[in-house]
Amino acid sequence: MSDSSPVRPAPPVLDVWCELQCPDCRTALADLRALRARYGERLELRLRHFPLEKHQHAFAAAQAAEEAAEQGKGWEYVEAVLERVADLAGRGESVLVDIARELGLDAEEFDTALIDGRHILVVDADQAEGKAIGVTGTPTYVIGGERLDGGKSQEGLRERVEEIADRLLAEREA
What we know:
- This protein has helices at 23-39, 58-70, 74-82, 85-91, 94-102, 107-116, 120-132, 157-173; strands at 13-18, 44-49, 140-143, 146-149.
- By secondary structure, it is an alpha+beta fold.
- The protein has a four-stranded mixed sheet with strand order 2-1-3-4, with helices on both faces.
- α2 (58-70) crosses α6 (107-116) and α5 (94-102) runs antiparallel to α6.
- It is globular, with a radius of gyration of 17 Å.
C-alpha cells in the first residue's frame, strides 16, 4: 500500500557564512533572529563557517559550534558565542567551554573535541566552499543562488533576503 500524501518540497535554504569572533556577525544576530521568527520551519537557516585569519580564536569557535550542533544546541550556542565576541577575543578558547557549560552541554566533550580536532574537516570544507563561491568576508548570505555580502554593509540585507525567500516560497507553493 503506498502513501498517497503529496511530498512536500524541501524548504528554501539560507546559507549564512559566519565567523564567531566577528563583530559584524554579532550585529547580524538581530536579522537572523528576525528571519527565524518570521519563517520558522519554512526557511532552513544553515550556518556555514568562514573563520578569518585576523581572528585568533575563530577556527576553534567554528569547531565548538559543530560540537554544540552535535549535542543539539547549535544555534543557541552560536548566538551565545556571538554575544561574547569581545570576551572570546580577550580570554580565548576557555570562553567556548564556559559557554558550553552555561548552556548545559557536555563541557568535557567540548574540550576533547577542540583537542582532537574531530570537526576540523567540516570547518575546512565550509571555508573552501565559501572561497570557491566568492565569499571574502562575514557575514555573507547565499539564498536562491544569490550572494549577499554583509561584511561591507548590512543595510537592507534582511529585506533583500526576505524578498528572495518570499519569492522562493511562492514558487514552491505554486
